[in-house]
Design a protein that fits this description.
Layout lengths: L7 H10 L5 H17 L2 H11 L3 E2 H6 L6 H13 L3 E6 L2 E6 L2 H30 L1
Antiparallel strand pairs: 1-3, 2-3
Helix pairs in contact: 2-5, 3-5
């Protein structure tokens, strides 16, 4: 028995009672949580913005954030990597960091697009009503 209150397992139990939980759903939720947590920090969002311009070596990423020490920057890269947002590739002695936009697309598809579609529909109806 877990001593954590309001844990993720409570959420899973609720979904199981509703007949919607599966091992795949749980894994998807965990991956989604890692992406959102990674993007929740300003520095990591700045790193994502930097890598959106193109792959960078770890040294280049560290140099782009002189206010942070190398260890802190490496920790941020690690969080982004575990979330699937950064894919490292070794080329000789260099570690190149590439942005993988698919996890960001998943956030868009799940959370942003449905709400944006609804908002566009409301605005379209409003424009139609005002134009009549």
């Amino acid at each position: 028995m877990s001593s954590r209150k309001g844990s993720a397992s409570d959420d899973d139990a609720g979904r199981a009672r509703a007949g919607t939980a599966s091992a795949a759903d749980g894994a998807d939720e965990e991956a989604f949580d890692r992406v959102l947590k990674a993007l929740a920090h300003r520095t990591r969002r700045r790193i994502v913005d930097l890598l959106a311009e193109g792959p960078r070596t770890t040294g280049e990423v560290c140099a782009a954030f002189p206010e942070l020490d190398r260890c802190t920057t490496m920790q941020h890269l690690g969080v982004l990597e575990r979330a699937g947002l950064v894919v490292p590739r070794r080329v000789g002695r260099e570690r190149w960091n590439h942005l993988d936009v698919l996890p960001i697309r998943a956030v868009h598809d799940r959370w942003i697009s449905p709400y944006a579609t609804g908002a566009v529909g409301v605005l379209t109806r409003l424009a139609d009503d005002l134009g009549r």
